[in-house]
Amino acid sequence: MVDRSAFGAKTTADEVLDGIDLSGTSVLITGGTSGLGAETARAMAAKGAEVTITARTEAKGQATVDQIKASAGKTISVEALELGSAKSVRAFAERINSGDRKIDLLINNAGIMACAEATTEDGFEMQFGTNHLGHFLMTCLIAPSLADGGRVVILSSSAHQMSDVMFDDIDMKKGGYERWKSYGQSKTANALFAVELNKRLAVRNIEVFSVHPGVIGTGLTKHLRIRDFLMFIPLMLTGAVKRKSVPAGAATQCFAGTAPEIAGRGGSFLADCKIAEISPEKKRDMTVVWPYAIDPEAAERLWSLSEDLLGEKFAQL
Q: Which of 7, 230, 273, 279 could cross-link with 255 by S-S, CB 3.0 to 4.6 Å?
């Protein structure tokens, strides 16, 4: 048995799940075709979970499904979901809610990072619209299918330290578009969503956590340029940024979704398989969370703004 008190940056998803039986547990993972999503799906399926991953198209996700079935031999399926399209999100939610299966664990894993300026199908700034609004709408719509007593895990990032939510310039039209600032804003929004969602789902004993997975070489980096990679070199040399393997990158979301020792700590931000310390002095450290990313008033404000932008209220989940 793995020593759970020793979990840290190098811990893998399989180590986190060692000794945990997920038989009969229903897990839904967005963006599960590669990288952290696929590794999380594999690790949880191997422990008996009934896993559903999402992909932009079913065809794109089928290869991952076939690979996991071949290695784990467990139940896994794929659903089409395009988070940058409210139409796709709504159609997905209708399919999920029409079934009789309750979701014990929802992992909002999908995302894009530092892309060129663009908008979603509905006209929202691409990173905020996909990383936050798409997941916000999807999660609220499928809330009736979440099992009471379950968990929701929302992938944020230490990149939240790059920007607070710019409530007066969400689409970055006033100050001008900056790829990394946009990404930082979306990751702060992810963390704030976890705070408010945890509060609203408390009556159903559902706990919500946000997670910094680490710096990992996955498809998330496809929009990065040479100068972006050069930016990380000094940080890696000083140890401020440490690169993780994919199995280690998936560990914290697996931990957040299953660890019994964090029960009752919903709304927390996790890094390296631990609840992150809050850094009031805004220290640039990948293992801490800045106060504005877990501020309950900002979280409530973001919820209201998100409802206004999407044109739908979610008074009761």
A: 273
Say how far apart CA 270 and CA 253 lie, in whole Å. Answer: 8
Tokens of 18: 């060692």
Low pLDDT (below 70) residues in the chain: 1, 72-74, 217-242
> Structure pTM?
0.93
Q: What share of the chain is helix, strand, coil (3-state, %, to 5)?
A: 45, 15, 35
| Architecture of the domain whose range is 4-310 | 3-Layer(aba) Sandwich (3.40)
Cα(11)–Cα(252) distance, integer angstroms:
9
Look-up of token digits 């988070």: 83
Provide the phi-psi class of 197: left if phi over 0, else alpha when psi is between -120 and 50, else beta.
Answer: alpha
Residue type at 142 in one-letter notation: I
DSSP 8-class letter at 7: -
Catalytic residues: 177
pLDDT digits (tens, 9 = 90+) for 78-106: 999 999 999 999 999 999 999 888 999 99
